[in-house]
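Worked example 2:
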Amino acid sequence: MKIGVDAMGGDFAPGVVIEGLAQALVDFPDIEVVLAGHKERVEFYLEKYGLTGHDRIELVHAPTVCEMSEQSAVSLRSKRDSSITALAKLLKEKKIDAMATPGHTGATVAATKVLVRTLPGIDRPALAASMPSKEGRFLLMDAGANPDCTPLNLTQFALMGNIYAQYLYRRERPRVGLLSVGGEDIKGNDLTKETFKRLEQLPINFIGNVEADAAFEGGVDVVVSDGFAGNVMLKGAEGLARATVHWLKKVMTKNAVRLVGAVLAKNAFVELKSFGASDVIGGAPLLGINGICIIGHGGSNPTAVRNAIRVSAECVKFGLNQRIVNAIEAAGDVAKLQKFPPENAANQQ
């Protein structure tokens, strides 16, 4: 199995990427890697980690990088020889089975949508982010790929999220909820109210509307949302987590007694931090693309890169995309680009 890896993606590339790759090659002997990046820069780190001439690494020269500060459309047009675009082309041509990048999310979404296209029956792809909750994790669909959505889009997000949660959380019937401002079906805006009607018709374990706080309480496995609200929820949670760490440091170092207590509780704080760590997840898949694409955090460390490669391979073995296509087909008209209900057809096109 061949996994394409973006050597230039993320804040600490290519060093961190190559270090993570070195771990992956040891842990997953059945994986071959096509590494896309600036040849000279990448070769330096391949030598550093003893990977020069490795028989399971193929290096594809991609001289430019999609910088994190650039607009995605600009990167796609002006940097056609970037590492992200190179991998998207390889994925389109079926020369790799999956791609993984800790690079520019917008550029990756744009490149794969334009070059790789979506799966049969899928209108738009969605970013599936795994979020921590009280007793585990839940999947946020969409975490930012689609700021403006229709009820049809959210319906397809629910189906795709349901399939991915089966793999990620090992649940046969994941609990799927719709992000809204109240638990009752009459709450929300026009988008959520119309989507609610559709989700009730799906062959999934739909539990109704879910408020953001309830999601973190642990009562749901998949939270369905448009990319705007989903990204606000995601970034709000990340910001609150960083603020909480700051507050803890501030109060625990206020005097000598507390400082001693903090030192004694060091292992507890390390364990607490691990609850929210995404390293073990590896990244968020861009579900709905006609190929497996895992997008990692820009600050990914070697462990996250290693796990992004692992998840890419596992999604291929799981048959993720074929399962999604089957789910869309099995759902019938409610999940297809046609009228539902008939009187609202004009709003869905």
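DSSP finds 14 helices and eleven strands in the chain. Residues 342-349 have pLDDT under 50 and may be disordered.
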